[in-house]
């Protein structure tokens, strides 16, 4: 009983104090507010803070900040996690539900979620779901703990993970049920004994956030195991060339694809590129005999590249996908060459629309990265550091990532997304995710209608 009266007294005291603060500070706040408004309304522009508001309406605050970084350092600015620039995307499309003219699928029917990449390969890549983990480079971008978590999460969800441009990490291969190994423009991860462990080979020609631009990373940022696996010595620089070494003509691409196919005993061999001169690039890829194409659109993210490469290069993902599908259909290659699409897709609706437009699978990056750091980045890094400090290789907090929790969250993100896609497929009257097509789509604006070649609502 004593405790009750003490608590009541404390509560009353706090309420009284809050009231007194409000009574005495309200006039002060009001005077300061009036003074501030008077200054803004009367000072000439040359002395007025409102100048910044006017400037921000012409030049986005992000540009102002990035120009400040350029002025401060005099070197390349490297922005993380992709372009903020608005671009045409899948949001301009909507699904047409089946109700009476076409009936929805009966709820007891199981929706088939499987997909096959490289159906004409000797050893196609068969996945339980059409969502994959995109390439994230160990050492150059993310930590060993994150790579292991991605491998475990992908395996539990029935899909594949991707090595990325970094060195081959044996632990990632150990925990990955299905592993895509990137054959990059760098010198590492090309040993035959490494490549033979791949379930699929992705020749890295370019990507949405950096195109085919070269990249150099001083070994000071790669200290430790990553530097050793790359075969670098202290003082060396990890270098990714703008061109694939040894390739100058389209015949060289064919030799490379044939070589990798023989070496790996027939796993799918494909190419990753940013959509640019799509038809011309795909002509060469078909000549080279690829089993799949990964299109990484202009909305794609990375650990850090100069804003000019993110904002001003390549085509948006949805445009690249639609043009690639149209080209392969004209060449009668759509049933032979699989399409994986990536770059800015972030919701189950985006994923299913990509499948409807002709993709065979969707490769996910940023949203998986943040799923892996769920309740870890926010709790361990914020408010003083960004949440990604628990996943980057050279970050102080990277050792604090709980691998098992991260793997669980990755698996659950993929599972939850597929469940939404299955439900949407039922509402469209279909029984397979791969059966959803352009006939199920309508556009909300003329640009989206022209891109996807679907009716305008």
Automatic annotation (TrEMBL):
Pfam families: Glu_synthase. InterPro entries: Aldolase_TIM, GltB, Glu_synthdom. Residues 118-429 form the Glutamate synthase domain. CDD domains: GltS_FMN. Belongs to the glutamate synthase family. This is FMN-binding glutamate synthase family protein. It comes from Polycladomyces zharkentensis.
């Amino acid at each position: 009983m004593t405790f009750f009266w003490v608590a009541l007294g404390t509560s009353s005291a706090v309420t009284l104090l809050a009231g007194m603060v409000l009574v005495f500070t309200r006039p002060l706040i009001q005077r300061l507010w009036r003074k501030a408004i008077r200054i803004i309304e009367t000072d000439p522009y040359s002395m007025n803070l409102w100048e910044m508001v006017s400037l921000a309406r012409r030049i986005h605050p992000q540009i102002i900040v990035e120009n400040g970084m350029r002025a401060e350092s005099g070197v390349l600015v490297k922005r993380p996690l992709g372009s903020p620039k608005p671009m045409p995307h899948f949001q301009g499309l909507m699904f047409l539900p089946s109700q009476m003219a076409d009936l929805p699928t009966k709820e007891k029917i199981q929706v088939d979620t499987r997909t096959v990449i490289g159906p004409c390969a000797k050893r196609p890549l068969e996945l339980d779901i059409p969502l994959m983990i995109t390439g994230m480079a160990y050492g150059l971008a993310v930590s060993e703990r994150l790579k292991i978590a991605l491998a475990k999460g992908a395996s539990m969800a029935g899909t594949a993970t991707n090595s990325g441009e970094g060195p081959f990490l044996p632990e990632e291969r150990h925990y990955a049920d299905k592993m895509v190994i990137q054959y990059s423009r760098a010198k590492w991860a090309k040993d035959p004994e490494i490549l033979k462990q791949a379930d699929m080979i992705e020749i890295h020609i370019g990507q949405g956030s950096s195109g085919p631009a070269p990249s150099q990373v001083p070994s000071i940022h790669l200290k430790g195991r990553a530097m050793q696996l790359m075969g670098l010595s202290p003082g060396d620089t990890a270098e990714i060339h703008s061109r694939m070494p040894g390739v100058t003509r389209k015949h060289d691409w064919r030799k490379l694809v044939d070589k990798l196919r023989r070496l790996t005993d027939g796993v799918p061999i494909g190419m990753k590129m940013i959509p640019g001169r799509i038809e011309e690039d795909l002509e060469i890829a078909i000549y080279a005999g690829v089993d799949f194409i990964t299109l990484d659109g202009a909305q794609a993210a990375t650990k850090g590249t100069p804003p000019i490469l993110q904002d001003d290069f390549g085509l948006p993902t949805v445009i690249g996908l639609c043009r690639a599908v149209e080209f392969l259909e004209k060449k009668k290659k759509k049933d032979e060459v699989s399409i994986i699409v990536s770059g800015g897709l972030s919701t189950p609706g985006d994923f299913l629309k990509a499948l409807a437009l002709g993709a065979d699978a969707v490769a996910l990056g940023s949203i998986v990265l943040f799923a892996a750091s769920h309740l870890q980045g926010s709790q361990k890094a914020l408010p003083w550091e960004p949440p990604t400090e628990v996943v980057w290789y050279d970050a102080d907090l990277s050792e604090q990532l709980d691998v098992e929790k991260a793997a669980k969250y990755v698996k659950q993100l993929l599972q939850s997304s597929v469940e939404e896609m299955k439900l949407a497929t039922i509402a469209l009257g279909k029984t397979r995710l791969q059966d959803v097509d352009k006939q199920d789509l309508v556009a909300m604006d003329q640009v989206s209608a022209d891109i996807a070649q679907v009716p305008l609502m």
